[in-house]
Amino acid sequence: MRVVLVALLLCSCRGKPAAPILSYHSVGDDGDEFTVSETAFARQLDWLVAQGIHTSPLRELKGVALTFDDGKEDALTRVVPALQKRGMTGTFFVITGMVGKPGFLSWDGVRALDKAGMEIGSHTVTHPRLADLPDDKVREELVDSKRELEKQLRHPVDLLAYPYNSVRPRVRDAARDAGYRMAVSGAAHGGSDPLDLLRITITRATTMEQFEQILHK
Ligand SMILES: [Zn+2]
Question: Which fold has domain 19-216?
């Protein structure tokens, strides 16, 4: 009985976000397991439309939130056109230290996403596992990336994705102290805490059947 109660308490503590948050990286026909093919991505979006499931900005969490990590250049060439065609929105987490490097967005590209009405958040400066870093380095990664994004976009940026979904309570608190309002992680840690929100990862291996199950939960 006691064990059951403890388990229930733990579950209710973590909970789930008010709406599902999906975690993508790249979209394209070649690439690693985190690169979803253009055909599969289009089928997933079309299925959402057919089901009457709306996307919403992460900050509103009123519909399914589509998030894209790392700031790869296909965000502009493939992801946004597919979203805009269907009147959808997405949230893009940028590694500020990688902007302008081969395969990644330039600052003009990041600004273009922002202008297109997409949400932009931080994915730190160098993409480390924050849980493995000392407090001062964690703070640096969180504060410096936020500051750079705000300088480039000329508006506040208060969304964060923890690299590798790596987060611990002290990292979560550092995100709050750095001024983030919402932060997303993965299935291992995340829950309904606005600074440690559960996301479900979609990969190249995710079948349409699995995708439907995720959204119907
Ligand atoms: Zn990442």
Answer: TIM Barrel (3.20.20)
3-state class (DSSP) for residue 197: strand
CA of 20 to the centre of ligand 1 (A): 19
pTM value surpassing 0.90: yes
Q: Tell me which residues have their CB within 5 A of the ion that is ligand 1.
A: 69-70, 163
Q: From ligand 1's centre to the CA of 7, what distance in Å? A: 31
Q: How far apart are the CA of 128 and the centre of ligand 1, in A?
A: 9
Query: Distance between CA 58 and CA 56 in Å, rounded?
Result: 6
Contact between residue 200 and residue 21 where contact means Cβ atoms under 8 Å apart? yes
Token duo for residue 69: 């990590």
As separate numbers, helices (DSSP H) first and strands (DSSP E) second, the chain gives 8, 9
How many angstroms is it from 164 CA to the middle of ligand 1? 6
pLDDT tens for each residue of 81-104: 999 999 999 999 999 999 999 999
